[in-house]
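Our consortium's second objective concerns turning raw sequence data into structural hypotheses that experimental partners can test. To show how far this objective has progressed, the report includes one record in full. It was chosen at random from the queue rather than selected for favorable results. The single chain below, 660 residues long, was entered without modification.
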Amino acid sequence: MQTIIITSPQWLKDEAVICNNLFAHGLSLLHLRKPGATAESYEEFIRQIAPGYRCRIVLHDYYHLAETYHLHGIHLKGGDGKNYHRYPRVPISISCHSVEEIQNLPFRPAYCFLSPVFDSISKKGYNSRFPVLPDVSGLSADVIALGGITPERIDACRLAGFKGIAALGYIWEQPDEALSRFLRLKTPFTMSIAGFDPSSGAGISADLKTCEATGSYGLGICSAITFQQEDKYSGTHWIPLSEIQRQCELQFEKHLPEYLKIGLIENLETLEQLTAWLQDTYPTIKIIWDPILKASAGHIFHSAERFTLAPVLKRLYLITPNTEELHQLFGTSSLTDLQTVCHDHGLNILWKGGHTPGTEVSDCLITPGETVRFTVPRDKYGKHGTGCILSAALISFLAQGLPLTEACSKAQIYITRVIRSNDSKLGFHTIPYASFRPKPFPMELNLQYITAPKNDVSLCEQIEAVCRGGMRWVQLRMKNAPFAEILKEGRLIKEICHRYNALFIINDHVEIARQLDADGVHLGLEDMDPREARKILGPDKIIGATCNTWENIQLRHLQQVDYIGLGPFSYTSTKEKLSPVLGLEGYRKLLECMRQNKLFLPVFAIGGITETDIPPLMQTGIQGIALSGLIKNNDNMHSETQKIIHIINTTSHDTFKNCK
C-alpha cells in the first residue's frame, strides 16, 4: 500500500529537514497543505527541499508553483472537481467524503482521498462518517484512506480495497518521532513458515534477515528444527501441523500479512492441509511456496511422485522451484507446458536458474500471460540457502507494492549481493539493500563542521546547509544542553548526515554517541579517557581528541585516538575554556615534533580560523581544519562551505602523512 504524508497545518520547527529525511527513507508523496499560508512561505519551504525530492510534492494551494519547481501535482478540494480542466499539464488528486462523491466525479483523478475513514487525530471532533469501512475495491479511481490512520488500522484499509493511506495527525503529533512513525506506517508485515537452520544461512532466520534488509518486518513460524550447518545435514525434528497453526493464529490476532511464504514442510500432505486451512481462515493472504525437496547439503526430504498437486496449486500465488524441483513437480521444463499449468491453476512460477551450468544465472518468471527472464553474471562463490533468501526477498518486495515482475528482478539482485558478500557459504545481509556507499574516514577528509548556536537558524538547518555545500563530516556540539535535548537533536542530525553520506560524531558525550550509534565521539582535555570510550563504543568507531601541547599529543598517541583536534589557532568565542593560542608558528613546531618522533596522527586545526588563515595553515602539513564560526556566521552557509572546500582543495600543501 502507498503511504502518503500530509504536512501539519502549522509551520513546524525543522519541518523541511524532517521532510527531507522522510523522502530519503522512501516517502513517495508529500502533500503540502498550510491553510492561510502565503505563496512566499510555500515557495520558501519548497526551496528547502532537496531538488531530487521536489518531484514528490503535491500542492494544496498556489498551483502555479507546481510547474515552476517541477512538483508532482496538485490536490483539489471536493467541490473544485469541476475545474479539473484548468490544469491539463499536472497530475490531479482530489478529496471526497463519500463513495457516491467518488462515483460522480467529472474526471478520473490520479487518486482521491476518502475521509475521515476513522475519527481524526489532528481535528478533534471530526469523526468518521463510516460505521463500517466501505468496500472501495470496485471503484474506477484509486482511493486513499485518510483520517485517524495509525499502523493498527492499515490491514483494515487494505482489506477494504484502499490503494494506500494518508497520515497527518499520527505523524505530526510528535514531530521528533515523525521518521520512526513513518517507517512503522510504511513497513509491511510478511510471514515465513519454515524450518529453523542453526547456521542461519537458510530457513526462518535467513528469511527474517532478508525481510528486514529489504524493507519489511518478517514474522517467523517454525515448521521444523533442523540439525545442520552449511556443509552437512544430519536430521530433522518436525513441528506438528496443529502447532504450526497455533503459532499462526496468535500472530494473525495482531498482524495480517498480505504475503506469506512456506518453505520446509514435513510432507506434501501437510502442505495441502496447511494451505487449505490458510485459505479457509485467511482468504486474502497470498501464498508463495518455495518447494524444498532436497537440502543444499544433499539430504532429500520428500518426493512429489504419486502426489496430486492440483488442489495445492490452486491455492498458491507463486511457486519458486529450481530446475530439479521443476521436473519433480511438473515433469517438464517446456515453457509452453508450464504456462498451461499457470493458466489452469491461476498460478505464477519463478523458475530459479542458480543450479543450471553456465557463466550466467537466468531466472524465468512464467505467468498465465507472459514469460520474463532475469539474468545476472554467475559469481564464483556459492551460498547455502539462496532459495530461501530469494523467496523471502520476493514476499518483502511484493508486500511493499511492487509488481510481480519488478519484485522478481529486485529479489534476484538482492540474492546476488548476498552471494558476493564474502567467499564462504554463509552470506552477509548487513549491507543495506539500497545502494551502499561506504562512509569516508577522517584521514580521507580535510574539513569538519562543529555545530554552534545561531539566532533564527536551528542546528538541523545548519547541517542541511553545510552538507548541501559538500561537508562530509559533522560534529554535534551542544555545550551545557540537557542529555535528552542532545539526544533528540542528534537523531535528526544523524539522519541528515546519513542522507549525505557524511560522518556524524558527538562532542564529549560517549553515552549519547552509543545510543545514537553515531560514527564516533570527540573528547576534550577534561573528558573521558579515549581508551575507556573505545571499550564502550567498540573498535569500529572514530575517537578524536583535543590537544594543545606536545605532552597532550604524546598522551593521545598512547591512547590510540584516530585523530587530534589541535588548537586553538587563535582566539575563538565559541569555546568557553580556551587553551593558549598556537598560531602558525605553534603548529609548525608541534608538527615538526611529531615528524621527528614518528607520531603519525591526522591533525585538524581548530579555533578562530578565518578564510585567509586556511592556505598558510594547510601548508604546515595538517590533515585539515575543523570550523564553526567561519561558516556559521555567514548568511549563506551553503555557499560559504563550498568556497572553503574550494580554497582547501586549491591550496598547495604537503600534508603530514597520517597513517598509523
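The partners drew two points from this record. The chain has three domains: 2-185, 188-419, 442-650. The mean pLDDT is 90. Both points have been shared with the crystallography group to help prioritize constructs.
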